[in-house]
Amino acid sequence: MVPYLSEIRYLKGVGEKKAHTLNKLGVDTVGALLRFYPRAYEDWGTIDEIYSDNLQKTVCIRAVVVSDVTEHPIRNKLTLYKFFAADQSGRMQVTIYNNKYLAQKIAMGREYLFYGKMDGNIIYRNMSSPEISEVGSNAIKPIYHASANMSSKVISSLVKTALLNTQLPDPLPSDVLKEYNLCDLNTAISNIHFPKTKELLERARKRLIFEELFLLQAGFIMLRNAKRTVTDVSVKNEYTNQFLSVLPFELTSAQKRVIGECMADIKSGQCMNRLIQGDVGSGKTLVAAALMFNMVKNGYQSAFMAPTEVLAQQHFKSLSALFEQFSIKCALLTGSVTAANKNKIKTAIANGEVDIVIGTHAIITDDTLFDNLGLVITDEQHRFGVAQRSLLAKKGNHPHTLVMSATPIPRTLALTIYGDLDISIIDEYPKGRTPIETYAVGSDKRQRAYNYIKKHLDEGRQGYIVCPLVEEGENTDLISAEEHYKKLSENEFKNYSVGLLHGKMTAKEKTKIMREFADGQIDLLVCTTVVEVGIDVANAAILAVENAERFGLSALHQLRGRVGRGKYKSTCIFISDSESKNTKARLNIMCSTNDGFKIADEDLKLRGPGDFLGKKQHGLPDLKIADFVNDMQIVRASGNAAKKCIINDPSLSKPENANLKAEIRRMFLSAMS
Questions:
Q1: How far is CA 276 from the centre of its chain?
Q2: Are 65 and 106 in contact (CB under 8 A)?
Q3: How confident is the model at residue 629, as a pLDDT?
Q4: DSSP E strands, 98-197
Q5: What phi-psi label fits residue 262: left (phi over 0), alpha (psi between -120 and 50 degrees) or beta?
Q6: Helix H segments across 249-338?
Q7: Strand partners for 10
């Protein structure tokens, strides 16, 4: 037997060249090949007749070869091989292109299965380049993600070799298999690749989906348990009421609840590791401020990391003003701070002269040292990832960790993406917040939309026009920011200050433009989705999105969140000529609600979890077969099984859990290191 962790190049029939191609497909071991599941299947079990209602359809025909194979040389050394095959309904001509080896195997009088597209008319049928197989072979055939140098057929052949020579250790304990009526792993692997029936395929899928979600959730439970370490950050007294009493407004009940959940963690004697998820404008920063106030009053420093310089500067400005009355010292640490000032700030932080540090990645450099770090906060968590969050947490002696995200994610997916964290949700908006009026229009209404934008600019407000592309030539059907900026600044908006912002600019250029817009020097910003996070301008009251059909619902919601941040009534206009039912449904959802969580749920139903999980969280495993939309029952069942298993054996030290422990360690290697 070949060990399942053996390098793929050692499998019979692979070698160095094929191994290199397989590595590019993500297959580096024999076990990884067996876990390289088919992307689709061909159904050879449903047999159609040659003469039926099947023109231009892909079908499987069972027929006898009734003529010799004839050879037809044509241009450029291309040869066609033709013969006739018949069933009880009639006969069809079969054409094989340039495959002498296959043609020589076809024997007159023998019965074969032909899988391909049926061409012809009511009196003539033909099939070109069909898949041809012996009768009695697998009724369901796998189709794999292939590449130019590695066909699905070759992968299928290699999988067969691996199945004959490899046994995978089953990570699911036997009592779990029995309780949930699941087949063993090697049976599931065999049937996911080469099922004899649809029932066996479905049983294999259920087992592998359950396993994947079980491992994921068990791993996250262990990660959370591991992070619930005893902390030296001792917080005995709570000062939340003192902080709230000086605010000129009352927090929402959701904000108060989340502060309570966080403070319970902080006072527990164990490290807090919590995510606050709240829509744009729900008041996450004030929750963070209340927690930082408590830390300072208990003698500890806090670090607040934002994804962009402009956002860090905005947080610094608002938090400094808020804490000034308490004589709490805040410092800003970003890449653009001069070297001399940076050294002064870092010295003050190390000496404990600074209570709260607000900044960007500059906070996590090796030479940034803290005197007594008690709380670490990262804003817009998906922009950083586990690795960077860990770097900041290591600046102190087991400090409490809080991460915040304004990207609404359905709770089930949030548990997956942020599975190593406890989750708090702010699901209520401050009083007086006016919903953003949202409209979807065709390009025939573009001029009218521009006039509406001008009306806002004339009233002293600012606005955005978002484009899907940076420059012309990327796609001729879509509007590019650079060309649109040139056209608008020279024509429709020539009497206004128009700025351009996109991702291909340098960090320095982007920061300059965002600062000018924030300072009111730019009236209208033509941009790409680079504005999705990082600009908080209370004076911006109107936003238009060109080619709105090119954006997902959550992206559109994040873009809409750039306006409505101040006291002014705000408007969002989505411009699209798409006739797609899906696009119209998505834009209708955007026009009917401002609730990011409802929008996220609809996005999940319409598009699946790909976009949410696409922003790779460093160190966390990918899902290969589970689907959060269609497998919700298995998500719950596997989660319950995982909790029960870890409760009974927290360190998975029992012999029956050895395979489970090894697989979780492999999946979460970088996250657990």
A1: 18
A2: yes
A3: 63
A4: 111-120, 125-128, 131-134, 140-143
A5: alpha
A6: 253-266, 284-297, 309-323
A7: none
- Supply the pLDDT for residue 613: 46
- Superfamily of segment(s) 240-268+283-405: P-loop containing nucleotide triphosphate hydrolases (3.40.50.300)
User: How far is 3 from 414, CA to CA, in rounded Å?
Assistant: 36
Task: State how far the Cα of 171 lies from the Cα of 190, in Å rounded to an integer.
Answer: 16
Work out the percent of the chain whose per-residue pLDDT is above 90.
60
Mean pLDDT (whole number) for 16-42? 94
Spell out the SS3 assignment of 413-424.
HHHHHCCCCEEE
Intervals of CATH 3.40.50.300 along the chain: 240-268+283-405, 437-593
Predicted TM-score of the model (pTM): 0.66
Q: Are 446 and 575 in contact (CB under 8 A)?
A: yes
Give start and end residues of each alpha helix (H) in 166-308.
Answer: 174-179, 185-193, 198-227, 240-245, 253-266, 284-297
Cα distance between residue 336 and residue 326, in whole Å: 28
Output b/e per residue, 435-457; b: 16+ Cβ within 10 A: ebebbbbeeeebeebbebbbebb
Give pLDDT tens digits for 94-153.
999 999 999 999 999 999 999 999 999 989 999 999 999 988 766 899 999 998 889 999
Residue 422: is its pLDDT beyond 80?
yes
Q: Which amino acid is at 74?
A: I
Say which CATH topology domain 437-593 has.
Rossmann fold (3.40.50)
CA–CA distance, 365 with 241 (Å, rounded to integer): 35
Fill in the DSSP letter of residue 126: E
Task: Reduce the secondary structure of 551-606 to three states and give it as a string.
Answer: CCHHHHHHHHCCCCCCCCCCEEEEECCCCCHHHHHHHHHHHHCCCHHHHHHHHHHH
Integer Cα distance of 33 and 161 in angstroms: 10
- The confidence score (pLDDT) of residue 609 equals 53
Tell me, what amino acid is at 202? E
Confidence of residue 45 (pLDDT cuts 50, 70, 90): confident
Average pLDDT over residues 171-199: 95
Rg (CA), the chain: 30
Give CATH 2.40.50.140 domain extents, the chain: 45-137
Three-state secondary-structure class, residue 398:
coil
User: How would residue 390 be classed by pLDDT, with cut points 50, 70 and 90?
Assistant: low
* Structure-block tokens of residue 140: 């369901």
**CATH number, domain 45-137, options 2.40.50.140, 3.40.309.10, 2.60.120.10, 3.30.1050.10:** 2.40.50.140
User: Bigger pLDDT: 539 or 504?
Assistant: 539
Segment 590-648, tens digit of pLDDT: 999 988 878 877 777 776 554 454 444 434 566 788 876 677 788 889 989 999 999 99
| 599, 560 Cβ separation under 8 angstroms | no
Q: How many CB atoms lie within 10 A of CB 634?
A: 22
According to DSSP, the residues that pair with 378 across neighbouring strands are 305, 403
